[in-house]
Amino acid sequence: MQFTEEHEHFRKSVRRLVDEEINPYVDEWEEAGIFPAHELFPKLGEIGALGLEYDPEFGGGGADHSFTYVLAQELGRIDCAGVPMAIAVETSMATPALARYGSDELKRTYLEPTLRGDMVCSIAVSEPDAGSDVAGIRTRAVRDGDDWVITGRKMWITNGTQADWLCLLARTDDSQPGDYHGMSLIIVPTTTPGFSVGRKIEKMGNRSSDTAEIVLDEVRVPVTNTIGEEGRGFQQQMAQFQDERLVGAYIALAGARKALDRTKDYLQQRVAFGKPLLANQHLQYRLAELYADVDLIDGFLQHAADRYLAGHDVTREATVAKLKTGRMTREVADTCVQYHGGMGYAEEMWVARYFRDSRLMSIGGGADEVMLRVITMLEGMGKK
Ligand SMILES: Cc1cc2nc3c(=O)[nH]c(=O)nc-3n(C[C@H](O)[C@H](O)[C@H](O)COP(=O)(O)OP(=O)(O)OC[C@H]3O[C@@H](n4cnc5c(N)ncnc54)[C@H](O)[C@@H]3O)c2cc1C
Hints:
This protein is an alpha+beta fold. It has twelve helices and nine strands.
């Protein structure tokens, strides 16, 4: 990827926003278990951070994927993982399918205000009984005249208590239950009667991000809220997952580099046995090894970003990126805790939060084992 002055200009505007409008409030938001998405997102919208790659006709920036990489690098500098994850839902998890396959009317009504930051959205795929096995979802949309009537439950929905609309995966054709056919992505405004937040889930990490269980009880939305072709929802969501996984990996990589830098600084300041801990060669080598891992993954992610930019199918790259960044992040977090000693275990330091937050990377958006399953299939092992 080639970074120009334009990239650096954009980087600076995101960095300023992170330093002035986000990081000073992170402790407060983590404590509250939520951050004010309707206040923060318009500020991101104003600097064009929410719709970088989308069509300018619908409020997008018309930029290429290299700007998304820069955005993610800066979001990775946020002092928690909850807020960047919530932002990434808006930019790269709940909106790609709408931008790619949605009708002009849907894009005007939902995409445009979302890219301005005036609307908050969620991606609603997982259910209490189906997470890894997306083909096993049970939420049903039944046709009644020109409407869908939707009933079911969605679980783990990021931004779920604040969202204005959901990009929801539902079963619209029951003739092949348990199969990936017959699903559609449908936009569901959260003001529709029958929509309710069942509960806000208390989590180990990503605490500033609200995560909800959603109940849909005969929620009626027009059939025209279907994104793209009816019955293609599973395939559209699988494509959308590639954006989610890549961007999640970009953000996590930047977070890991920052965690290593902060740990290096701490070890330089902390004296034991008459010298800074960092003078200990064992600690130097362990950090050096992890920096090398970060460099390797950075190279791979930039390669993946280049292939995305060139319009290739990046299923393999996004899968490998998510798997390996998740595993590396866990190792980095564990090492940071260890080298901070007791302070690594104290809530007053950033390290404990990083340890808790980073664990999600190997679970959310497809667990490590699901990534291995995809690679297994791409390598012609196992059955599809
Ligand atoms: C904080 C948070 C935010 C989230 N945000 C969203 C969101 O906004 N929208 C949304 O739709 N979902 C969201 N999710 C859901 C997330 O994507 C799922 O939790 C994830 O896909 C795993 O699904 P599951 O929890 O049902 O685990 P399960 O499917 O029950 O799997 C449990 C474990 O079994 C193993 N496993 C599963 N399948 C296989 C297999 N085939 N082979 C071997 N091992 C396997 C894995 O280790 C897996 O972690 C979020 C989750 C969390 C925790």
